[in-house]
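Action item from last week, closing it out:
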Amino acid sequence: MRLENSFLSIISVGLLVAGNMVGVGILGLPVETGVAGFFPAVIAMVVACCAMSYSAVVLSREAIVEKQEEFNFPSLFQKYLGSWGKWIATGANMIVLYGLLVAYLAAGSTIIAELLNSDSPWVLKGAVLGLFVILSSLALGGMAIVRRCNAVLIITMWGVFIVIICIASKHVQFFHLKYENWKMDLFALPILFTAFLFHNIIPNICHHLKWDMKSIGLAIGIGISAGFLMNFLWIMVAIGDMPLHVIDDALRNNLPATVPMTKLLNSGVFVAAATLFSIIAIVTSYISNGLGLMGFVTDLVNNTFKVKSRPLIIAVTFLPPLLIALINPDIFLKAIDIVGGVGIVILFGILPAIITFKKPGSIKFKIFSVFCLLVFILALLCVILKITGVVKTG
């Protein structure tokens, strides 16, 4: 079958997919996976990658059928599952979008407090507030800011990431990589799902590649492969650098991996590179997800509740994450767990699998969908066990 798009277009979309996977997930990845050990973490990463690729294929096929750039996931699930499907998807989408904004504020404020060498809760809350004002102002300014600087930001991010890997790789202790605790492996799945999340841009990908499934599949494959390589290198050097007690401490205190690593490596260049990488990831992700949430809230307020008020929409979009981050500024990893283990699992895991069962298709694909469904359900159960305190991972 001939591709309907140029290979350059496919590559550029693949890089867009990879860029969308870079966010707060990658900042917490070595901490959440490190308690299981490097080899178990890699196995869990392969499983998460396969499961998220599967759901991307399912949703891409549905987007191609609809051929609408403004493709709405809750409406898709209403089509197959009725009103209950729409409202479950709506709730899951709210968990993902609100949870990510909370995680960005929590991670950013923790990094700022660390740079200021302060553990004062008031410094942390002040950092949350300052970060909120800056990031929300940028988000309200629209995506034009990011689009104008997108190429520079992506090139800078990848360049800085290479610097981080090169510096950190010199300090890897290979005996750290030998540690294994398979009991903790399933609990790494929620953050791994977050690290492979790009599904919100699937409608744009399909539109850009002229609804050609072969081109779309190739672009997604390129993007996921690049994201997988990035995540693999990052957890290898980070777990290799950090002793287990440091990982445990970071997990207990909800810290991004860059915070304990800057103390361990004691390198000014690493501190600068890690800080720049974190800032770019947080800023670009907050703006795009903030705009996505504002569009979602606008649709809900205008069409469901029949109210037209921009100040109300802005307040409903940005104030809840601010309040949660101010009340509990060290909520970073907990927020990621809920985003990945509840929101993403339901919206981009369980519900797409149900669609697969309801539609005719190959037996092999249906068998694989059963495997993916079990993975998503296990991740949901693990998060419930962590939230309720039945299991402690740190």
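Closing note: The two ends are 51 Å apart (CA to CA).
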